# Entry
Amino acid sequence: MPPAVGPMHAASMDHASRRMVALLGAAITAGFEAGAISYVLPAMRASTGASAQLASWLLSVFVAATLVAVPLAALAVRRVGATRLLRGCLMLAVVAGGLASVLPSPDGVLVARALQGLAHGPLLPLVAAVIVTHWPPEQHGRLLGQVSMAYGLTYVAATIGTPFLLQLGWRSAFSFGACLALLSLAWPLPGSPASHDTDRSAPWWLAFSRPMLPTILLALGTGAGQSALVWMPTVAATRMGLGMTATAPLMVPLLLGGLFATACVIRWLDRLGSRPLVITGFASAIAGVLLVVAAPAGPGFFMAGGAALGFGIGMLSGGPLRYAAARALPRDAQGLAQGAVAWLTDVGLLAGSVAVGHIAGRGADARTAIETALSVVCALMLLCAPAVLRLPRQDRAAT
# Structure
């Protein structure tokens, strides 16, 4: 029979579970913002008559603020502590969402969106840093996977539910996001006092040191693969001659593939380590892109390719790279490690999106141009994939 669980151990487990609620709440806050904004922008244009340029600025200023906030947060973790910084980002998310809900002028909403980027960008890397710092190594994979699952499920729920929420007005999504951040603040977080010794033992360049190089390259490749996800509805429309609304059912396998991958991460990452899962993720994502652009045009091949691509990107984004970063650097440098993974994934996403948009916009034949663009994304992933061979074969925690 298993040993009895003592009251002290049970209380410790209950306290750890309560602390995870706050971390999952931060992931839910980030997931809702990512899933909702694509509906908020057209709703804002329809309601206010704003130009397409203004709508694009609302997205661009958020992305730019994110790219600034993530490295700054990674550096600040050494002095402030990941927990305090996470709490500060959630507070800023509440303030920014409230400002976006009430400020009347477009310039004011742009400022609020910049504040949202500063607040939301560091959430996931800070959550990962808190987990790696405050939980035993043998639980890291499962907990990182749970965070990714919370983010993914919220993203799916936001894509389904935001159109109904926007019946209350285009600002309602900002108000709801602020409420999610406020609810996350109601739960306890583990303490992480700052330390000047930590400052000296974790210089910024550790994020780009030799142990981190494979993870850095793989994060760039993952970001490039994420850019292919953004273009999947456009691929379906051009290859099969469908309207954009008719492509929505074809995206279901892609979403399900990503959620299934995250479930696999929760189950297997602590047991197998990061390397097998990263290999599986890159192989599946590359196979998915090839199926989408090279197989005969048709719903069957497209959905199979979408499922493979969603599974691969979900596997890569669901925790293995964060797990590898946790093993590459010591505990007192986890703010740097997790920040580097998040920031370089965003850089890869931005580079892939720019490359796809540039190539897709130059060809006279829209179908050929978009297929060529996604082939370039596939090539970028292939260039980064050999770095997986430099990951340790056994980086899982001893059990």
The longest helix spans residues 7-48. The radius of gyration is 21 Å.
